């Protein structure tokens, strides 16, 4: 049977607001199954990206991939076909492929970009960073001791993706990582209002939270200042 003939057999008398949920169990069940499968998949592919975006995108992926096969399954039996709300079906398809699909593709592109930026930053630990400098508006400090730099890089390797919630930075500055081969990598950084002991670094559009990073850097600079004062005496 041609698709157009199958569509003619749908129930076009009901308004689109009446989904007849009890008659579309196969469609909804398949979407729920695929959503449950795809939500963890996003976490496996993009482990360091905003988890809220990953959960939402995984659920929407299940809807996009399951809605059409579920509909065809529902329409495979002539008796069920006559009970499917045609208007609600068209509205659901338009929402899935006209709204959800573009958003899922957009989120996938952004998540891929953020994950690459974060992976790049974490890989810098292997390039032999020999110095870390901090600069902002006439302020310039550098960490050059190998043990201190190693501790900072461990904080960086253990950092987590940061999701802001209507907060700005108390202090914004630039962090530069100088590698042993002479290359350097410069990033924006800051100390968020609600995380005064932590440090946030932007490898690009993504944000990484170094827990106790601000406290670590501050303590190192204070200890160096105290040593300098003692030597001056």
From TrEMBL:
Ranges that cross the membrane: 29-47, 53-73, 94-112
Keywords: Membrane, Transmembrane, Transmembrane helix
Name this protein carries in UniProt: Uncharacterized protein
Organism encoding this protein: Ahniella affigens
Lineage: Bacteria, Pseudomonadati, Pseudomonadota, Gammaproteobacteria, Lysobacterales
